[in-house]
Design a protein that fits this description.
Layout lengths: L1 H13 L6 E6 L8 E9 L4 E3 L5 H5 L5 E6 L2 H10 L5 E8 L1
Antiparallel strand pairs: 1-4, 2-3, 2-5, 4-5
Length: 97
């Protein structure tokens, strides 16, 4: 029984999404306090994007120094638990200027 419980826990951990964050700094990094956040949606567990494409360069406008962070936030994980069964997942894109 203890071995079965350990195996079930291992399987649960393997299939539980985790938070991740990818940060890219352009130029010297953000110089102001302006922050723009958007959510990107994907089909097939992240293989195909749908909805408008979030282009960090167009969001940054004419800024030459900014930071782009792409992440699964806690909110994304909650959404993905509900929508992941039908293969729809989301991630958050934040641009700091």
């Amino acid at each position: 029984m203890k071995a079965l419980r350990s195996i079930l826990l291992l399987v649960l951990v393997c299939f539980t999404p985790s938070c991740y964050s990818l940060t890219h700094t352009v130029g010297g990094g953000p110089t102001g306090v302006e922050v723009v956040t958007a959510r990107q949606w994907y089909w097939l567990w992240g293989l195909a994007r749908f909805g408008p494409r979030i282009d960090s360069e167009s969001v940054a406008g004419n800024a030459t120094s900014y930071r782009v962070t792409t992440e699964w936030s806690f909110t994304d994980i909650l959404l993905n638990v509900v929508t992941g069964a039908v293969s729809v997942v989301s991630q958050t894109v934040t641009v700091e200027k």
